[in-house]
Model the fold of this input.
Amino acid sequence: MSVEKLDYFFSDCDMTNINMDEIKNACRAMYVKSLKIKKQFVKLQIREVEAAFLAGSLYYDELDDIEQISSETESQMKTIRREMFENMVETYGNDEAIPRYAHIMKFVSDINKTCVYSTESMILCNMMLPKSNHVNTWLTVDEDCRVPM
Done:
């Protein structure tokens, strides 16, 4: 899917009091942010071990948001980060390992920001838009308004 094809996605929505351009712009911004992350990921040619580290870092951050992490878990994550950096130094050397590690940690930050932006957008959408089968999210508590998948 491309940014230009977002119009097709919204073409069958029949909502007379909704500013569709505003909704499209919000989706377009989200799509562009996700696309930038994907392009950076491909450009860096992330190895499997780095992808696993990235997934683990995201999972750790998610757990940290939900509940307070124990000092033991925090210590284990620090060890994993150190080992990942040492692996990068062995593989790429110091000059390339440092910026590469920084890029991977930036992925964590960018993905977390994109998730927060997405969640906030869905919450605002649920609060502001009328209940509609065309514009509902899975954050909606009211299950009667959900479209079956």
User: Anything to note?
Assistant: The longest helix spans residues 94-128. The mean pLDDT is 75. Residues 3-140 form one domain.
